[in-house]
Structure of Probable succinyl-CoA:3-ketoacid coenzyme A transferase subunit B:
Amino acid sequence: MAKEDKALTREKIAKRAEKELQDGFYVNLGIGMPTLVANYIPDDKWVMLQSENGLLGIGPYPTKDQVDPDLINAGKETVTEAKGTSYFNSADSFGMIRGGHIDVAILGGMEVSQNGDLANWKIPGKMIKGMGGAMDLVHGAKHVIVIMDHVNKNGDPKIVNACSLPLTGAGVVDRIITDRAVIDITPEGPVLVEAAKGFTVEDIKNLTETELIVEDEVTLEAY
């Protein structure tokens, strides 16, 4: 996939994920694609974005003249402040997360299984900086949404029967948003909720390893 196409795909997923945020929510955005969601929160929606490194009130990515090298998110990217921003240490930040005060966590994913297991922190054999806060977020946040491409760079499904990569958490994912579909994890199995523009129900089923439940209420051409 071309670099430009990849950027447009990430933008599409982030815009759709923003619709999950309700006025008054406290939200944590994982590193990578989830941080883009901050760019699409409208001015008339009050959402407080929290970061593990001790920041509550993250705004959109800065323009060139807004960059403050001391103002960063958990992924060490420069960010802006929203009105009412506050700062604190990481212990307080993780207290917020573990205490159940985060309404929604939007995280990236490498694999999600049919029962909501998430693998998003390590590929065996590859160097990593650390596990970050994802393992706390998947258990502390009230609602966990994973955003990711529907298939990996080899074209293989990322929504699978069972994760082959090390788990971040077992049975923790509530909703998956990809470039092709919105899927809810339910006790009965994964349910197809929406199909993105350009993809049919059959397209999505063929690109998903686990069997999807398809009900009459599926929204086609949703985003």
In short: The two ends are 20 Å apart (CA to CA). The chain is about 15% helix and 25% strand.
